[in-house]
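User: ok so my PI wants both of these folded by tonight, can you help

Assistant: No problem, let's get them done. Here's the first:
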Amino acid sequence: MNRQNAAESLGTMLLVASIVGSGIMGERLANGNAAIALLANSLATGAALLALIATFSSVSGAHFNPLVTLAAVSRKELPLTAALVRSAFQIVGAVAGAALANLMFDLPALFPSQHVRSGPGLWLGEMLATFGLILVVRMSGSLVAVPAYIVGAYWFTSSTSFANPAVTIARTMTDTFSGIRPIDAPAFVAAQVLGCLAATWVSRWLRAEK
């Protein structure tokens, strides 16, 4: 394992632990108020993501997302084989993060979610969330741009912005606030891929226009 893959796995693990853990904590403290729980979840995720990007960007680029890694292939920044290996490390880290969050709150390490997330509106929301994320990643040089977008997308998208196949897979393994049923995950990932492809094309066009 090289340092870049280790950094991506560790960073993705901590990101998912923050997503799942803050979801559990927020839901327990909100006493049934879903808006308060989502606010806690989004702010904690954005803050953790900002810290993780600052920590790991100099080592691996702080992708923490297979789509961001594969987008780097289109810019010839990373060979396809290396990108696929790195994506696998991200997925492993994501699953470990979900397990750690579950265990912290005295739940089984991994257990399938029963949280229904399905339907055209949610798929469109997930495609838009990923489109915006990849666009920000490709066109913004700001450290805070990606975390800021993620916090906003939690609220303006119907899907609450997963925008990450590794995170989506991990969230099938926690039947908590941030979970998604395993049967619903493939459609989310397909929507994410479509959003990524669209953002890649648009960003190329905008930069060429510039």
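One down. Here's the second:
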Amino acid sequence: MALTLSIITPTYNQEKYIEETIKSILSQEGNFYIDYIIINDGSTDNTISIIEKYDKLLKEKKWPIKCNGISYRYKTRKNGGQTSAINEGLKMAKGYAATWMNSDDYYLPGAFEAVAKEFEKNPDIDFIYTDFMRVYENKNKSTIYPRPNPNETLETLKTRGNSFAVNFFTMRIVKEIGYLDESLQYCMDLDMWFRIFQKAKTKYLPETIAAFRIWSNSKTTTGKSKFEKERELIRKRYGANIMPPHKIHKFRKKLSPMLNIIQNKTPRLYEVFKNIFYKIIDLFKY
């Protein structure tokens, strides 16, 4: 039986990019159903007109459906923030697995087919994370580096703080761990990943399935200090490393020339140094 994938798009004044987001979801091909939910969080621009355009196209059967079927739903509400908008969408979700896709990002062709197949092959998996691309404003696309660790665990999450920007999780795990923490507006996803990794079996899918946009007015660009404040709160909440992951990576990068020589000449010695490095880092946790 084909799986249903629920995708939630929270949006606020994203007329510039949301059409690309919507089209990337509705254009997915394969043996699955799409349950697409858009929460219009009080937009005052042309966002709602774009959302209604695709509702009309689907109702009039003028949009070519290339999967088993599409449920397209949207809700307009007063502005309440991204986290509560996602939670509202998750509470409406009907799929086996779900995720959210922000309205300035988009999926690549074949994304849902790859994810659906992975869940079908691994019914005990509750969380799948993948590679993605960064798209820079007025620049070319490039794959993000470093790629996710294929063997992430709760302990490596505490050390590296991976945010798993592109992922799908089962609705059964959501029922077990609960929804997003609405006291958080920047790192609510990271908080959820900690809770998932405490309970669930996870899997890395080595495919680039989506594009994450970096532009002048995105939360990633404008809210760096707020992101770090919430990351520290979460590190304390789950007993993660005192040193922020980006500082760990920066320190490791300074050692890269020496480490690269050791890795090329004596790979086993490199692994020893690597293990010692992270063991020392792991001594300093909240």
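The beta strands are 4-11, 33-41, 69-77, 97-100, 106-107, 127-136, 141-143, 167-170, 202-214. The longest helix spans residues 267-282. Good luck tonight!
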